[in-house]
UniProtKB/TrEMBL annotation:
Superkingdom of source: Bacteria
Gene3D superfamilies on file: ACT-like. Chain A, domain 2
Protein name as catalogued: Iron-only hydrogenase system regulator
Coiled coil, from the record: none
Organism: Acetohalobium arabaticum (strain ATCC 49924 / DSM 5501 / Z-7288)
InterPro entries xrefs: Acetolactate_synth/TF_NikR_C (IPR027271), ACT-like_dom_sf (IPR045865), FeFe-hyd_TM1266 (IPR023860)
Length: 85
């Protein structure tokens, strides 16, 4: 059974938290297969959304999520998708 892991990271006040989030993502770069960053173009919004597809390494995914959750203004959600072959 093939497994795929997806993580959504919501960053509030993007200009303050983004550098720390980037530093953490760089540390865990070896488990990141795909990264998509979406930010609001409306000047009144300061939120960013990052979607990640991650390699199937439960311990590293858990560590990544824990570190991101420690950053002020960052929310993290993960999901595991299992595919039958």
């Amino acid at each position: 059974m093939k497994t795929s892991n997806v993580m959504a990271i919501l960053i509030d006040k993007r200009t303050n938290s983004a550098p720390k989030v980037q530093e953490i993502l760089t540390t865990y770069g070896s488990i990141i297969e795909t990264r998509l960053g979406i930010h609001e173009t409306d000047d009144s919004q300061e939120e960013g959304l990052i979607l990640l597809v991650l390699r199937d390494d439960k311990e590293e995914i858990s560590n990544l999520a824990d570190e991101l959750k420690e950053v002020t203004g960052v929310k993290v959600n993960t999901m595991e998708l299992k595919f039958h072959e």
